[in-house]
Amino acid sequence: MRVRIDLAYVLKRFAGRIAVTWAIVLMENGLLALVPLSVGMTIDGLLAGRVQELGWLVAILITLGCVAVGRRFYDTRVYGTIRLRLGSELQRRNSALNVSKHSVRIDMSRELVDFLEIQVPELMTAVVQIGFSLVVLTWFDVRLGLSCALVVTGMLLVYACFHRTFYRFNGLLNDQKERQIDVLAAGGRRGVFRHLRTLRRHEVTISDTEAVLYGGIFLLQIAFVAFNLLQGSRIDGVSAGQFFSIATYSWDYVEAALLLPIALQSWSRLSEICHRLNGPEDCAPAPASQLPSQP
């Protein structure tokens, strides 16, 4: 029985290494989420003649820098090994395909790993920032927390209207990419031009759809920030440092929330890619061994 290649497959084969990278990502984002609150406390402390809060802020920033640098050294090696092993597996599995499709599908398989290396940490950043911002803003005022919940709900509803559209447009783009080597091998200038023009048309269509989606979402975020600033200024006894924290966490919330549709859009594209990698047309015999988990 042929093993299906998808994100779950890669996660299972490299569970230990990926778990380490994600644990470091969570540590990095936990420290990052503390920065605006620490800055606000430092402002109030310095205005009151204290430097203790400044010392804590410096310690957090130094630790954050060390964790971030270390994670990037480790990530590069782990995900490079995964790309190597996954590409080798597809080479064995897709040997019956023509060269054009074979080449493009190896490139597509790398997008699975790119998602784990880039989009998943960004999504984790978004979740940590959203969760931490929600807690802090609710602590300042319940109405600030309620506005957070409403804007994320509205944003996800907007994206839900675009999921099938992104899936279909990415399918058309991938269909055209799979013809590229055959078109180049044919050698006709007109054929190459038509191929590149078709690629451009699909890419423009996807980009235009993204622009409409993000434009709608950004309007929600503008209303959210304006409401939080107005409401924060009306809190009784709010200090300069507390108002700074409210403003900063509100903007951090916006930036984090905007990462969610980006990750969801990547998921739409990967869904189409996984369907293509495991489609009936690539039915080479099942490999004798599964993807190895050791380099």
Kindly describe this structure.
- The protein has helices at 7-13, 15-47, 52-93, 99-140, 142-160, 163-177, 180-186, 189-233, 240-277.
- With 295 residues, it is an all-alpha fold.
- It has one domain (7-281): ABC transporter transmembrane region fold.
- The longest helix is centred in the C-terminal third of the chain and has 45 residues, at 189-233.
- The chain is elongated and about 75 Å long.
- Residues 280-295 have low confidence and may be disordered.
Roughly what is the average pLDDT, rounded to an integer?
79
| Ends distance | 25 Å
What count of structural domains? 1
CATH topology: ABC transporter transmembrane region fold
Subcellular location: Cell membrane
Main location: membrane
Organism: Roseibium sediminicola
Protein name: ABC transporter six-transmembrane domain-containing protein
Topology:
Blueprint: H1 7-13, H2 15-47, H3 52-93, H4 99-140, H5 142-160, H6 163-177, H7 180-186, H8 189-233, H9 240-277
Which key phrases capture this entry?
mainly alpha, 295 residues, ABC transporter transmembrane region fold, 9 helices
In brief:
With 295 residues, the protein is an all-alpha fold.
